[in-house]
Write a structure and sequence with these properties.
Oligomer: heterodimer
Shape of chain B: globular
Number of helices of chain B: 17
Order of helices and strands of chain B: HHEEEHHHHHEEHHHHHHEEEHHHH
Shape of chain A: globular
CATH superfamily of the largest domain in chain B: Cytochrome-c3 Hydrogenase, chain B
Strand content of chain B: 5-15%
Structural class of chain B: alpha+beta
Strand order of the largest sheet of chain B: 1-2-3
Number of strands of chain A: 0
Structural class of chain A: mainly alpha
Strand content of chain A: under 5%
Helix content of chain B: 40-55%
Radius of gyration of chain B: 22 Å
CATH architecture of the largest domain in chain B: Orthogonal Bundle
Radius of gyration of chain A: 23 Å
Helix content of chain A: 55-70%
């Protein structure tokens, strides 16, 4: 047991590939807990705060300091709510629909490479698996809409499936053009493995976003648009268009079941952002890994995780100081202080690890430092995408159904096809 | 008259109306699964985009709208009947509750109608105050329209911006008469309150504050690709249809008809001010948006002229203690933010109106919904309801 536990630490491949079932299980559990918690707490809170500040509001302020505990309060409320299944609904399907969505969006995380060995498994068909499984999410929406046996959910479900079909194609073509770029090496063979794709970017010394400028950018933008449509987020949130279909496919859902849909939606957002990061933004690679290398640069870049936590801690402390001195805010002030201290402690821990594990990738500290770096850069890039999702939501009106289809088929598909062909031609010429 | 009939009562609506039971056929419990034919759904009375309690019965072919029928009356309070049991003065606050986002305009229309019946005229200073407050109210009403309209189309943020800025107007109202929404700002014969010290400064500050905010709204929406896609050529209303249906206000002007009661039949002292009537060409939702945005700027122009020229003098005309108009009838209309707001009062010589009829602009404008959305998509219904700018308190009265 202990041996099996320690064995992974020296491994350079994901536990799934090394046949290390214990570590694979640990990874699955970590990912499940981390993703649920991030989605439920962090993303929920950040979205509400970001959206509120876009809209000259404060957002949640009451439960916990600056509303930090609001998501927990909401989760508790949703769990305690009555579980209503409409009389006319197809009960079994109605019950199962949110589970499908949830399973689809969480299964994707199996192949997401947080680092070269920081993944559950590295499949040789990784990206196909990812696209395939993440598009199963729409099945949850469609079955939910159908099983509700009600008009608005049905329309939401139909919109969602149509949207899915039109955007999968453009998305797939954009992905293919990134995969084509992986084959520009000495052997001339590309890879579908998620880890392989990032490694190809490292070998070629460029993120695929900037490869064959502007072809990489075009494919990336197509994907970035399609992924918003894929996850049913504004401005493509037609399936749950609040002002049109009341709540779209989840009109009839309430309580825990509704929250499962939300969990699935946000998990799917992170999943598609991860695909984009892996394919175009160099996955776990830190900025300029080939240009600025050597122990000194390694060390400087490995300070970033600790420093960013320190920055968060500083923000929390500033908030503590700025809080009104009224005794009414005493508990909140203490709470925010403790939160800041937690962040500061995390920052300290990360900095210590960076310091102890510098210039070393064999020992535990070194391995840990390396792993933290990979995961940090990966999550930072994903976080940028998540922020973009919120930004879109605050800024843009919603597209209409026919316009959405028109953009999908008449604009995005030709452009992505063109980008693919151009990438292929340029790739051959360069070679 | 015939072609009015053709236009105003398109077939599907009469079909729906003539067999009211047919609406609910699809909901009948003996059909376990959804029908694959036309879909009839109820939009409202509880629906996020029907601005209160409007119920629209939609007949759909997939997403395409085949016909609509508006069911109104969920907010009916019998305002017109109440008028018959109240004295003229007592009824004054009730009109605020019709179009509650433009209460000042309602009050102005009512007070002027009764003044006309009494044959008295408000003094010039009162007229200036009335114009300033009414135009401020027009801006406030248009801000609510803009926010909710944008929200219906999916843009959340303008709503909060407009509510933030509308707050400044409400603060002026509150300082002037103590109320923010249902202001009851005017009295028959003038105004009850003298301007508070610093009113002019507040209004000027508001203008300086508001015009940059207008640019902010426009930056979010006017050039926005999605906004244009969603509103251009949506809910077209030709000038002919608009006139035939009695549509007034910005909706009529967006269809290219230059008809604004402030210019056509000037009341208060609108004739003294220099302002333009913005008109549109296509009569689509985008034009209505542009017209209303321009109207807000024109309102600012009027307010600016008015606030610089408020004369000294009394604020109330000589009005008898007990208002007892001579036998007769009167119709007076003003340009409310939503269109022509008319009051028809029949007096039997007593202290109470014998009959009071309100011509509410959004009630009449709502008729155009069916023409505007037929053949379009469900999402357009929402956009069009938003662009009509209805307030159900006024539609149902």
């Amino acid at each position: 047991m202990m041996q099996s536990f320690m064995s992974y630490l020296g491994s350079t491949v994901p536990p799934g590939n090394a046949g290390n079932q214990l570590w694979a299980l640990i990874y699955v559990l970590i990912i499940f807990v981390a993703v649920s918690l991030t989605v439920m707490w962090l993303i929920n809170w950040v979205e509400r705060k970001a959206l509120a500040h876009f809209q000259v509001r404060l957002g949640p302020m009451r439960v916990g300091p600056h509303g930090l505990l609001q998501p927990f309060a909401d989760a508790l409320k949703l769990m305690l709510k009555e579980d209503i299944i409409p009389d006319q609904a197809d009960k079994a399907v109605f019950w199962f629909a949110p589970v499908i969505g949830l399973l689809a969006s969480f299964t994707v995380y199996i192949v997401i490479p947080f680092g070269p060995s920081q993944a559950v498994s590295d499949m040789n068909i990784g990206i196909l698996f990812m696209l395939g499984v993440s598009s199963l999410g729409v099945l949850g929406i469609v079955t939910a809409g159908w099983a509700s046996n009600s008009h608005y959910p049905l329309m939401g479900a139909l919109r969602s499936s149509a949207q899915m079909v039109s955007y999968e194609v453009a998305m797939g073509l954009a992905v293919v053009s990134a995969i084509l770029m992986t084959s520009l090496n000495s052997t001339g063979t590309g890879t579908l493995s998620m880890i392989g794709i990032v490694e190809a970017q490292q070998q070629q010394g460029v993120w695929f976003l900037f490869k064959f400028f502007p072809l990489g950018v075009i494919a990336f933008v197509i994907f970035a648009i399609a992924m918003v449509a894929e996850t049913n987020r504004a401005p493509f949130d037609l399936a749950e268009a609040e002002s049109e279909l009341t709540a779209g496919f989840h009109t009839e859902y309430s309580g825990l079941r509704w929250s499962l849909f939300m969990l699935a939606e946000y998990a799917a957002m992170m999943a598609v952002s991860s695909i984009a990061v892996t394919l175009w933004l160099g996955g776990w690679l830190r900025p300029f890994p080939n240009l600025l290398h050597g122990p000194a640069w390694e060390f400087i870049f490995s300070l970033f995780p600790g420093l960013s936590f320190a920055a968060f801690a500083a923000i929390a402390f500033i908030g503590t100081v700025r809080m009104p001195s009224d005794s009414f805010f005493k508990v909140q002030r203490i709470g925010l202080g403790i939160f800041g201290l937690t962040l500061a402690f995390t920052a300290l821990l990360l900095l210590v690890i960076a310091f102890v594990g510098r210039g070393d990738d064999v020992n535990i500290a070194g391995r840990l430092r390396e792993g933290i770096d990979y995961v940090f850069w990966f999550l930072l890039k994903v976080a940028i995408f998540m922020y973009l999702f919120f930004w879109y939501r605050a800024t843009w009106p919603r597209y209409r159904f026919d316009q959405l289809m028109k953009i999908g088929w008449k604009v995005m598909l030709p452009i992505s096809l063109g980008a693919l062909i151009a990438t292929a031609i340029v790739g051959v010429l360069v070679k | 008259m015939n072609d009015l009939k053709d236009k105003a009562l398109p077939n599907a609506v009469t079909d729906l109306a003539s067999s009211p039971s047919s609406r609910f056929n699809l909901e009948a419990s003996d059909k376990p699964y959804l029908d694959s034919n036309e879909l009839i759904i109820n939009m409202g009375p509880q629906h996020p985009a029907t601005h209160g309690v409007l119920r629209v019965i939609l007949k759909l072919d997939g997403e395409k709208v085949l016909g609509t029928e508006c069911v109104i009356g969920y907010l009916h309070r019998g305002v017109e009947k109440i008028a018959e049991n109240r004295t003229y003065t007592m009824f004054n606050p009730y009109v605020d509750r019709m179009d509650y986002v433009a209460a000042v305009s309602n009050g102005l229309g009512y007070c002027q109608a009764v003044e006309k019946l009494l044959n008295i005229e408000a003094p010039p200073r009162a007229n200036f105050i009335r114009v300033i407050l009414t135009e401020l109210n027009r801006i406030a009403s248009h801000q609510i329209w803009l926010g909710t309209h944008a929200l219906d189309i999916g843009a959340m943020t303008p709503l909060f911006y407009t509510f933030r800025d509308r707050e400044e107007i409400l603060k002026i109202f509150e300082k002037y008469c103590g109320a923010r929404l249902t202001t009851h700002a005017f009295r028959i014969g003038g105004c009850q309150y003298e301007l508070y010290p610093g009113f002019e400064k507040d209004v000027k500050n508001f203008l300086a504050f508001f015009l940059p905010k207008m640019d902010e709204y426009e930056a979010l929406l006017t050039g926005n690709r999605i906004w244009i896609d969603r509103t251009k050529n949506v809910g077209m209303l030709s000038a002919r249809d608009a006139i035939a249906l009695g549509v007034t206000g910005p909706m009529l002007r967006a269809s290219g008809v230059k008809w604004d009661i402030r210019k056509a039949i000037p009341y208060a002292n609108y004739a003294d001010f220099d302002f333009e009537i913005p008109i549109g060409q296509n009569g689509d939702t985008y034009d209505r948006y542009l017209v209303r945005m321009q109207e807000m700027r024109q309102s600012c122009r009027i307010i600016e002229q008015a606030v610089n020229g408020i004369p000294e003098g009394p604020i109330m005309a000589k009005v008898p203690k007990v208002i007892k108009p001579a036998v007769g009838e009167i119709y007076h209309s003003i340009e409310a933010p939503k269109g022509e707001l008319g009051y028809f009062i029949v007096s039997d010589g007593s202290t109470q109106p014998y009959r009071l009829r309100v011509r509410p602009p959004s009630f009449v404008n709502l008729q155009a919904l069916d023409i505007m959305v037929r053949g379009q998509l469900v999402a357009d219904v929402v956009a069009v309801i938003g662009t009509i700018d209805i307030v159900l308190g006024e539609v149902d009265r």
